[in-house]
UniProtKB/TrEMBL annotation:
<protein>
    <submittedName>
        <fullName>Predicted N-acyltransferase, GNAT family</fullName>
    </submittedName>
</protein>
<keyword id="KW-0808">Transferase</keyword>
<feature type="domain" description="N-acetyltransferase">
    <location>
        <begin position="227"/>
        <end position="369"/>
    </location>
</feature>
<dbReference type="GO" id="GO:0016747">
    <property type="term" value="F:acyltransferase activity, transferring groups other than amino-acyl groups"/>
</dbReference>
<feature type="region of interest" description="Disordered">
    <location>
        <begin position="397"/>
        <end position="416"/>
    </location>
</feature>
<dbReference type="InterPro" id="IPR000182">
    <property type="entry name" value="GNAT_dom"/>
</dbReference>
<dbReference type="InterPro" id="IPR016181">
    <property type="entry name" value="Acyl_CoA_acyltransferase"/>
</dbReference>
<keyword id="KW-0012">Acyltransferase</keyword>
<dbReference type="Pfam" id="PF00583">
    <property type="entry name" value="Acetyltransf_1"/>
</dbReference>
Length: 416
């Protein structure tokens, strides 16, 4: 799979297609001068449904006969749901029944995958799972696997790249190959440069190295714009959680008070999602012997057009993995099974259906990859005593490292 812009209105002139006395027709738009950001304002990118993905891949195969088989595409998507985004024109987008007109597919490569890509040995037609980063792993590189974008849809590629600027992907370089002159022109217009390895023919887009990244569950800072998440640590934070859940579950879904506030809130970890400085959503996590339960996801109605729900779920999964949990469990409203499946949750064999607060639910389970920096016995003990969700930062008790042992209260008592 390689970059292709099918029958684009931004098509580049190819002199080889002209007769000896022909003059090149005036271009409608030139990729070298196109304003991608202006075109992108009229487009929407989103995760395709399985049926829509199959339709898009089959449609693209007319122009790109060398596309990987649908089963391979689905396998890559199962490894990392961020790998494929559909593009459509904004005026045609229907959130209730989204239907893509084009797509961008990326491979999230780990270090082995990047080394193989640069060496020219990477098999893009059947990428090995061992060379791909999972959804919650930071990749070593992002390989633009395929771009199928007709006419104005080419501007949606920039939107996809913007979506891949979350803390997990920030600073990760893009790589691509071009299958057509139009694809090469689009890459150059987006800021890619041709690589020096002629045999590999890679295009490279170097991104600014990411600053030291806060984990997704501790990304909020006062004054920050956009979507961010923080662990609830104060009574004021807990009041925010209560207000958010009251607005969503009690006001919208008519959930009784004693069922929504069920006695588990003081024994759980809560995440708060912010848009700017405004509390916009929350999530609760409870921890058991060998699994963590993800629950009580709530997003205020006015913020459901943001990525808040996705940010909260991903932050919750990451926090549980850092604490060493690999089995994540939840009760999903049956109408939202598709949403949870995007993160790797599945209705497992023997899963029970249940009803509470007048909604139908089903058990779901996610088997997560082990976190490379999971906290366990044997790690720095100062890390273990840091505030919840702030294990990446030195805490107040870390200052004790540099102080001598004085045992002031014990010595004072002994002196009496």
């Amino acid at each position: 799979m390689t970059v292709h812009v099918a029958h684009s209105m931004f098509q580049a002139h190819n002199p080889a297609q002209l007769g000896p006395t022909s003059l090149p027709p005036p271009p409608r738009h030139g990729l070298s001068s196109m304003r991608v950001e202006r075109v992108a304002r009229h487009l929407v990118v989103f995760m395709p449904t399985p049926d829509d993905l199959a339709r898009l891949v089959n449609a693209a195969r007319v122009d790109l006969p060398d596309l990987a088989p649908l089963a391979t595409v689905q396998r890559v998507l199962s490894k990392n749901p961020d790998s494929i985004l559909a593009i459509t024109q904004r005026h045609r987008f229907d959130a209730a029944s989204p239907r893509g007109e084009g797509f961008v597919a990326c491979l999230m490569l780990n270090a082995d995958g990047l080394a193989s890509l640069k060496a020219g040995t990477f098999d893009a037609a059947d990428p090995p799972d061992t060379m791909l980063a999972a959804q919650h792993e930071r990749p070593a590189a992002i390989y633009v696997w395929a771009v199928y974008a007709r006419r104005r849809l080419a501007g949606g590629v920039g939107l996809v790249f913007d979506r891949l600027s979350s803390p997990l992907y920030q600073g990760v370089d893009f790589y691509a190959r071009a299958a057509t002159p139009e694809g090469a022109d689009l890459l150059m217009a987006l800021g890619f440069t041709a690589g020096s390895e002629a045999s590999v023919r890679l295009y490279h887009f170097a991104r600014t190295p990411a600053p030291e990244m806060a984990p997704p569950y501790d990304s909020h800072r006062p004054g920050l714009t956009g979507v961010s998440v923080a662990v609830a640590r104060s009574f004021e934070d807990l009041a925010r959680v209560i207000s958010l859940r009251a607005a969503v579950y009690m006001a919208e879904q008519a959930c009784p008070y004693e069922e929504e506030f069920d006695g588990n809130d003081l024994s759980a970890t809560h995440l708060i999602g912010y848009v700017g400085d405004e509390p916009a959503g929350c999530l609760r996590i409870r921890f058991f012997a060998d699994f963590a339960k993800i629950e009580r996801l709530a997003v205020r109605a006015e913020y459901r057009n943001t990525r808040m729900a996705f940010a909260l779920v991903r932050a919750g999964i990451e926090l549980a993995r850092v604490k060493g949990y690999r089995r994540l469990y939840g009760h999903a409203q049956k109408r939202l099974v598709g949403f949870w499946s995007r993160f790797g949750f599945r209705v497992f064999e023997g899963a029970q259906e249940l009803v509470f607060s007048d909604f139908d639910y089903v058990e779901m389970l996610m088997e997560a990859e082990p976190h490379p920096e999971a906290i366990g016995i044997g790690v720095d003990p100062y890390v273990i005593i840091r505030p919840e969700g702030r294990w990446h930062k030195a805490g107040a008790l870390d200052r004790s490292r540099g102080r001598a042992v004085t045992r002031p209260s014990v010595d004072e008592q002994a002196a009496r």
